[in-house]
Backbone:
């Protein structure tokens, strides 16, 4: 039992929020039973000398998924669900690098369907739009067939996956409930910031094999530690001091660790991975929605967009002087023979403006 009254839900004692905390722990136990089912176990090489999918290709696919999420203004549940599907499929199946773009779009397609089914909302992004924006070089039919393959291999007919985002929201609710029992009204854990941290972590291959419960616990207390450091800085500048009871939340973290059977070594390793990923992300000074899609234009599309590109003419220069009538050179006409041959003329002879290309 925590000091100042923040106790485990199995402990005796009634409170106004006791029922809610029991429900949270009931959900926690359910997540623990399902954690191994939705846990990816990737073993990808760093370089693809043997034609295998590398960690760089995996991170590239996650980057494309995040770009699609931003482009279509999709919720974070869709992005993290799609990344979880992608990692689990690569865990079970050995795929060729040329199939990665189609698998990526198919995972996003399935995640959008799952989110629409859970929220009972209509789907607002079509498969054709996903294919067009992602530039995956596949068709809508390819995505539909690959989606069926992924659903079959992962047995998706049962229920949606319990992702790191579900864990983060649950543990955040438990920490806020513990803070409420400690009468800590100023503990701020903004959900949007936590969601951004989860997105950053799951998009990096370094955190892909970490237990989702450990990853979520590390991210929640990373955000809490950042909050307490900021409050301590404000207190040093003359603001309100941080209550000592706030540090009792770390004792609550130890209880969660024991309840979820997390070893100290595994938790320390996950924390080191998370800090490394966040440090590299902050070093790049990347904003949450700063990713850009790279548009690759074919020669045909380029001709349509820039019809006068590389168009040259060899027209003679007009002399700015007046020639006498008698000094004008006479021109001999020979019937229907043109003054220029068809092979050497550069001026177009048809209503369609030509485009000169190398090929």
Residues:
């Amino acid at each position: 039992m925590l000091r100042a009254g923040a106790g485990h839900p199995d402990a005796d004692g009634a409170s106004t929020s006791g029922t809610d905390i029991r429900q949270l722990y009931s959900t926690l136990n359910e997540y623990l039973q399902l954690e191994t089912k939705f846990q990816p176990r990737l073993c990808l090489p760093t370089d693809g000398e043997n034609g295998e999918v590398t960690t760089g290709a995996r991170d590239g696919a996650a980057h494309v998924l995040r770009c699609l999420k931003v482009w279509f203004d999709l919720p974070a549940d869709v992005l993290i669900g799609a990344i979880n599907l992608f990692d689990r499929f690569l865990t079970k199946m050995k795929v060729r690098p040329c199939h990665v773009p189609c698998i990526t779009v198919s995972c996003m397609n399935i995640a959008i369907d799952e989110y629409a089914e859970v929220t009972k909302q209509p789907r607002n992004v079509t498969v054709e739009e996903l294919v067009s924006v992602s530039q995956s070089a596949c068709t809508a039919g390819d995505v539909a067939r690959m989606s069926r393959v992924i659903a079959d291999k992962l047995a998706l007919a049962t229920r949606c996956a319990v992702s790191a985002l579900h864990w983060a929201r649950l543990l955040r609710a438990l920490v806020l409930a513990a803070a409420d029992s400690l009468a800590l009204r100023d503990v701020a854990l903004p959900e949007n910031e936590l969601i951004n941290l989860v997105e950053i972590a799951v998009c990096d291959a370094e955190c892909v094999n970490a237990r989702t419960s450990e990853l979520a616990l590390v991210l929640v207390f990373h955000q809490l530690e950042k909050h307490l450091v900021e409050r301590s800085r404000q207190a040093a500048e003359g603001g309100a001091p941080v209550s000592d009871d706030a540090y009792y939340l770390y004792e609550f973290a130890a209880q969660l660790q024991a309840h979820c059977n997390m070893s100290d070594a595994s938790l320390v390793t996950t924390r080191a991975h998370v800090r490394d990923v966040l440090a590299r992300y902050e070093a790049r000074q990347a904003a949450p929605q700063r990713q850009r899609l790279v548009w690759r234009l074919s020669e045909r599309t380029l001709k349509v967009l820039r019809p006068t590109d590389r168009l040259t003419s060899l027209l003679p220069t007009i002399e700015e002087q007046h020639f006498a009538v008698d000094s004008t050179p006479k021109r001999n006409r020979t019937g229907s023979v043109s003054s220029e041959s068809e092979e050497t003329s550069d001026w177009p002879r048809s209503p369609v403006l030509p485009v000169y290309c190398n090929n």
Q: What stands out?
A: Residues 1-16, 334-359 have pLDDT under 50 and may be disordered. The chain is about 50% helix and 0% strand. The two ends are 77 Å apart (CA to CA).
